[in-house]
Amino acid sequence: MKQNAQVNQNLWRVASADFLVRTAYQMGKSPLLPLFAASLGAGSVFLGLIVSVSTMTGLFLKPIFGYLSDRSGRRLWMLIGVGVFAVTPFLYWFVKTPEQLFALRLIHGLATAIFGPVTLAYVASLALEKRATRQGWFGLARSGSYLIAPTAAAWALTWIDPAAVFTVIGCISLLAFLPVLALQEIQPKAQGVLRTQNPIGAFLYTAKRAASVPVLWFAGSMEMTIYISTYALKAFLPIYAHLELGVDLLTVGLFFSIQEGANLLARPFGGKLADRFGLRPVLSAALCFLGGTILILPFATTGPQFLVIAMLMGGSLGVVLPTIIALYSLQLPDKDLGLGMGLLGTIRNLGKVAGPIVGGLILTFATYTTLFVSSALLILLLSATIAINKPLQENTDFV
What we know:
Blueprint: H1 2-27, H2 32-39, H3 44-72, H4 74-87, H5 98-124, H6 131-157, H7 162-174, H8 177-181, H9 199-211, H10 214-244, H11 249-277, H12 279-295, H13 303-329, H14 337-365, H15 368-388, H16 390-394
Helix pairs in contact: 1-5, 1-6, 1-7, 2-3, 3-4, 3-5, 3-14, 4-5, 4-7, 5-14, 6-11, 6-13, 9-14, 10-11, 10-13, 10-14, 10-15, 11-12, 11-13, 12-13, 12-15
């Protein structure tokens, strides 16, 4: 009983820290960052690079920081991550050119590259039982930032200039030191031969071991496909719905808010479903539902129809995403969880970067219906793969 209370305390502490830093970080993105870049004279192409560069940082560095947390402890690297979150926003006062903003965003992206895989590994290693449920509650804190941050940033911009908003962001991030300092370190430092090896050789050895777990490629391909689909929608659904169908812009904006809200609310419920009925069947069913929902997008012609689809998509994502993380974490030893979550984050970020590019390529040669149907069929194929894959069924505890 005492151990469960301790696990819950640590879960809520890390969730509180994540909510604070991610809310602040998301405030620094849309609509603040594009407006700030435009005010500095950034052209459209370079503005796009400024917006995406922080994600590209995590693409390469998440596995490294996850590995380092496996070796020297999660709490230390969470403190370093919070430090980057907290200090970097104050440097925006000194930015005078688009090139300087690009460089600073590159540095700012280090914060999520550190904090993302380390916190996921920390939550996964709290205890073996009910991992999907805890990932669901942790995902609730993460998703909450996406609901609050854009509105908060837009409101702040009506009162103060962009550099001052970044100062507010830095102050909010500083608060995250309090819950992180209260965390208990539950991952012992690595022992044995790896600590005496060449660091690069030890990293490559551990990366090979983590990458050899087959479920990484199942989990990674699922997340990458999901993010290719959802980020392509973020890029092109406003054009499709507003310019081609005449849906008003407010409804188009509500599509993404409702989707994220449904995602947020469904995460704890989805985690409980997976823990009760098994990760594999719940994941397969939720992916099938997600694919089917995207498949009906071409038939939506009115605002209310789009909003219902947004709610259904968000709810299915709230079941899929924590279940994928739990599925993967159960196959890794605790000593490799940080690196493993980093590898999964790298594959995930590939989907976020590739989504708008793939969507644009499809639309160059085909129609929006082709884009939606292609995305849906990929997800439905993943659902079928999970449902019928015997090695996955035999070698795990999901059934």
